[in-house]
Specification:
single chain; 337 residues; alpha/beta; eight-stranded mixed β-sheet; three-stranded antiparallel β-sheet; 16 strands
């Protein structure tokens, strides 16, 4: 299974600033986690889709599941030596980015599949033991848009992300989990950190005490904001230790000699190569191979997201599309996909 396509057209930017100590942090890897929330002032579009305007389906759903209007994200730099500068996805070696929305399911992520049952009690979002082809959503090396992290005095000071949906090769809405989304002309997302805080740095020794550190879809949002089909097919709260166990310490695949995560979940112990991206028949390469020393982690809070939707003449069609999205979200069926 190839990398999951974009489920949400975005043309925007993320800006994130921190009030941090100026002490220079030296580390072999750096992780920045963030959550961004939509606000009444940051939605631009027709009232039929505005989640802050009473009378439409999305507004009604957001009243009891406000986390459906938020995003999870991560910017990761492997083999970082503490250097200052601007680190850019698709350009700077070792950079990976993750952006996920409960409403749209995902924006920037690699989709990997479990090869079989876990020896380590791994469960999906619904709490059931994982089975073959359940999903791991992990940061991607190759982003459709461009994400940048600026580091000054050893600490992050700005994070940006922009994607132009009109650029050649950027996927549209054909594979969206709900076909109604194709009728919603989403145009832009802008994440902004005015007033946000990243807190202080947390440091771990790679391979020693970093097993519980988030990597991939490790959400801080309410699980009630996620559609039931996602919860029943996706591993949530993924950590570095969890991935290490499934890739190098699991005995259900050919006597434990092969990883338990692959591109499509159907390799079943065969002699296939490993890769950083799920293209072709490949096992997941250990994301932290070759890393050692210190992992520095920052956790952001107070980031906001702005969304723009192009108004269309057929407001009724937009309203139906928005309703279709909410119906898909509000179902709590236990399905696998």
């Amino acid at each position: 299974m190839k990398r999951n396509p974009i489920k949400f057209g975005v043309l925007g930017a993320v800006a994130a600033g921190l009030a941090l100590s100026t002490q220079v942090a030296r580390a072999d890897s750096l992780l920045v986690n963030f959550t961004a929330a939509l606000t009444p002032a940051s939605f631009a579009g027709p009232d039929a889709l505005n989640p802050f305007v009473p009378g439409n389906a999305l507004h009604a759903f957001a009243q009891f599941q406000p986390d459906v209007l938020k995003l999870d994200g991560q910017f990761y730099i492997s083999n970082w030596d503490g250097s200052d500068g601007v680190f850019t996805t698709n350009v700077s070696p070792g950079t990976r980015f993750f952006l996920h929305s409960p409403l749209i399911e995902r924006l920037e992520a690699d989709t990997w599949r479990i090869e079989g049952a876990s020896d380590h009690g791994i469960v999906d979002g619904a709490g059931n033991a994982v089975a073959q082809r359940d999903k791991f959503l992990l940061p991607t090396f190759s982003t459709y848009g461009t994400a940048r992290l600026t580091i000054v005095n050893g600490a992050p000071v700005a994070l940006s992300y922009a994607l132009d949906l009109t650029q050649p090769g950027v996927p549209g809405f054909g594979n969206a989990p709900n076909p109604q989304i194709a009728g919603i002309p989403f145009q832009s997302i802008v994440l902004d950190s005015d007033g946000a805080s990243f807190g202080s740095a947390h440091r771990y020794t790679i391979g020693v005490d970093d097993g519980d550190v988030a990597y991939g879809l490790n959400t801080r949002l309410s699980l009630g904001a996620y559609p039931g089909s996602l919860l029943a097919s996706t591993v949530m709260n993924t950590t570095r230790g969890m991935l290490r166990d499934e890739l190098g310490n699991n005995s259900d695949e050919a006597g434990g000699s092969t990883p338990n995560i692959s591109a499509d979940g159907r390799l079943n112990g065969g002699a296939f190569p490993a890769s950083d991206e799920p293209a072709g028949s490949v096992y997941l390469n250990t994301p932290f191979a070759g890393e050692s020393g210190t992992l520095t982690v920052f956790d952001a809070s107070g980031v906001t997201v702005a969304v723009a939707v192009v108004p269309e003449p057929d407001t009724h069609a937009l309203m139906l599309a928005g309703l279709g999205l909410v119906v898909a979200l509000s179902r709590r069926r236990v399905t696998r996909g």
